[in-house]
Design brief:
Order of helices and strands: EEEEEEEEEEE
Structural class: mainly beta
Oligomer: single chain
Number of strands: 11
Strand content: over 45%
Number of helices: 0
């Protein structure tokens, strides 16, 4: 069993930065892919960034160049550094873990476990 716990959300101004963390508990040693998703009110949950166990990352076009996904295997923690925040980044952010890549990375059905979500609000 795996538990994912997000933290680091909050409120920020446009142009500012926030860093989200996702701590993984349980049997995570053989994870294959992890990702951050977000869901704004009235919208579908969408992939923001993904990373494989080898450290290769990919991003949604809307955040490319502004957000950075990274992992710390020693701490079993996934991060999302968010810079140059925009009001349209306002959403609940979720981390997700998959034990087998069945692609594409932004497909929600690929993931076995999800965190409870952390709210990010960006004001103009």
């Amino acid at each position: 069993q795996v538990q994912l716990v997000e933290s680091g959300g909050g409120s920020g101004q446009a142009g500012g930065s926030l860093r989200l963390s996702c701590a993984a508990y349980g049997y995570t040693a053989s994870w294959n892919y992890m990702a951050w998703f977000r869901q704004a009110p009235g919208k579908e949950r969408e992939g923001v960034a993904g990373i494989d166990s080898g450290g290769r990352s990919t991003y949604a076009d809307s955040v490319k160049g502004r957000f950075t996904i990274s992992q710390d295997d020693a701490k079993n923690t996934l991060y999302l550094q968010m810079n140059s925040l925009k009001p349209e980044d306002t959403a609940t952010y979720y981390c997700a873990l998959s034990f087998r890549y069945s692609g594409p990375w932004y497909s929600r059905s690929m993931y076995n476990y999800w965190g409870q979500g952390t709210q990010v609000t960006v004001s103009s």
